[in-house]
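2024-03-11 09:14:02 DEBUG pipeline.ingest accepted 1 chain
2024-03-11 09:14:02 DEBUG pipeline.ingest length=451
2024-03-11 09:14:03 DEBUG pipeline.predict start
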Amino acid sequence: MSMTVRRLSRAATAGLVAAAALTAAAHSAEAADTLGSAAAGQGRYFGTAVAANHLGEADYAATLDREFSSVTPENEMKWDATEPSRGGFTFTSADRIVDHAQSQGMDVRGHTLVWHSQLPSWVGQLGASDLRTAMNDHIKGLMGHYKGEIHSWDVVNEAFQDGGSGARRSSPFQDKLGDGFIEEAFRTARAADPAAKLCYNDYNTDGVNAKSNAVYNMVKDFKSRGVPIDCVGFQSHFNSNSPVPSDYRQNLQRFADLGVDVQITELDIEGSGSAQAADYTEVVEACLAVDRCTGMTVWGVTDKYSWRSGGTPLLFDGNYDEKPAYDAVLSALGGSGDPGDPDGPGDPGDGTATCTATYTRTADWNSGYNGQVTITAGSEPISSWTATVTLPAQQSVSALWNGTPSLNGNVMTVRPSWNGTLAAGASTGFGFTVAKNGSDAAPTVGTCTAS
């Protein structure tokens, strides 16, 4: 699918994304009481890894949309997901994440172009000449599909061994193409999308050690020779056996001093309570202390879907309640949560703020109709609300006003644009235009959630 067709398709599917401008306005209008808005106040992004198959879960999507300003597809842009057979590209799942992010005004990080893992079997069966061609074609095909839409790409991922040698990792690329494959990948990537930031990404490089020294020397060499590299990603997976290094900030700074941005790309910290909160604070403060640390990404929205779920490493628990680590990160970013609410801002389980949503059809014609949803606060004032509208399968929304929408299939989730704050008993609302496409049935309005 060409870029032009993809963009037109996305606009048609989201229909209402005349609301993209409303989304950006809503993000900027919020107080710094979410991770994304607080980080923006520090000139940085705060992102999360996203799995396409969880976007249909209301609490997952609501937490993602409320809190984060950047997304990284967890698996959907990897080689096995995007080119399972040679030359046979498929982007359905990755497109779903990119479309969702763009409907919410979020940036997207691309992950990852060249990696030794999650490769389809055909890649390892190629000889050197074919492998070089396939690598470059994969970079051009994947980046070309998203040209102009991805903020940063992890061009090469995890190319160095663990341990004290600082050697390159054995992989089809290293073994058959030699040390030059990383440089070649970066040069191909620059040509494929000159506007995207190009990153090298790895783990166990968070402190000064043999592995980080090897990466440092490679980046220094690249910068000296004009090889196009813009950023270095530090995965920052921590636990009691691999704690935050004492020289974490100094290590980030020495890479920044080479003239590249640094990004914390896959952050998670196993633990709980105040100890976990303190570790997260240390990481955030390190990034804020380094001018070229442009942002942080936690590797998942909720503990229950983490790749390390047994270690409860994320900021939201399995019920999407904010953990002490969330409050610590928000505070470190200069955010302003409600000190009387230990769960933090926007907690869906708060129970004190309530609202109702009622639907009315306000205009009707042969091919379409206008609908209005009225939001009314309960017995307590509210600072924000969320309502869902489920459309009959045939129908589609062509416009929406006075709200910030996101669309998942035929379920539209709407949040305030300018009208989130309501006194007790007060009302506001949003309207929308629907194309009937042969169905005159009424939409279903779900429960209103307030904070």
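2024-03-11 09:14:41 DEBUG pipeline.report Residues 297 and 354 are 31 Å apart (CA to CA).
2024-03-11 09:14:41 DEBUG pipeline.predict end
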